[in-house]
UniProtKB/TrEMBL annotation:
The gene is ilvE. It comes from the Bacteria. Signal peptide: none annotated. This is Branched-chain-amino-acid aminotransferase. Pfam families: Aminotran_4 (PF01063). SUPFAM superfamilies: D-aminoacid aminotransferase-like PLP-dependent enzymes (SSF56752). Acts on leucine, isoleucine and valine. Its cofactor is pyridoxal 5'-phosphate. One of its GO terms (cellular component) is cytosol. Transmembrane segments: none annotated.
Amino acid sequence: MEPDIWYNGEFIDHEDAEIHVLSHVIHYGSSVFEGIRCYDTDQGSAVFRLEEHMQRLVDSAKVYRMDIPFDLDELVEAVVDTIERSGLRGCYIRPVVLRGEGPMGVNPLENPVETFIAVWEWGEYLGEEALEKGVDVEVASWNRMAPNTFPAMAKAGGNYLNASLVKMNAIKNDKMEGIMLSTDGYVAEGSGENLFVVKNDTLYTAPTGLSILPGITRASIIALAEERGYEVEEKKIPREALYTADELFFTGTAAEVTPIRTVDDYTIGSGSRGPVTKEMQDAFFEVVEKGHDPHDWLTFVDVP
Ligand code: PMP
């Protein structure tokens, strides 16, 4: 049986979590959501940076003028309750806030705001082998949206039409992922991941102003790298710096820390996972697998 889904403050059966075809979200993409992971760590089940994810959800909703009738603490508690009720020790967590059924038309202000939280079991997004060997990617022909088109810092459903185009093209071209450039031609991010370039032991990543989603894994890797003595620069990265990098890796809730071995068929570094990428993976997995939590990033949940 699939786990129960939290809906506006109550639990409902998985099968009953339905919306009407005339809901605003279906026609106009009016949802905001999160992707969060609960890990079965050596110290017990724990959610990685739960509060930061839910704060990003609240911020995304604010940008789209959606009033969620629950505060941050209540939403955090709702996630914990949903996991505990599911009995899943490790899972992917998907809170989504959407505009439901109401007057038909672009204006969403009269449509109800509905909040759902679902959880399910999920393995590595880009494949287990990818974490070790790395993935083949391309520079996408679609750009990341310009800052004055869609708010890139909001994790909104509609943004993922752009991301889907990037991902579909990559798959059609036998690549695992596409790297989007900003509208002024600088490296932005993958369809569902942030990107790091390693060159001469310095880590570079696009600044948050450059139409990227401010990833929570990205922020965690910046902190872990700096603690280990690496310099990290958030700056505009030209496309060719991808091809000449010593190492490249993606970060994200789903992708975790995934090495990139080729871009547009250029071999990156040695063509397999580099030492800095490995060090960052180890640092990340020390937290989420071993449950070693000096930063207070884990919220432990009670799953027997
Ligand atoms: N960029 C995009 C477009 C994403 O969808 C994601 C996944 N949420 C990320 C970056 C990575 O963000 P996070 O580390 O918070 O999962």
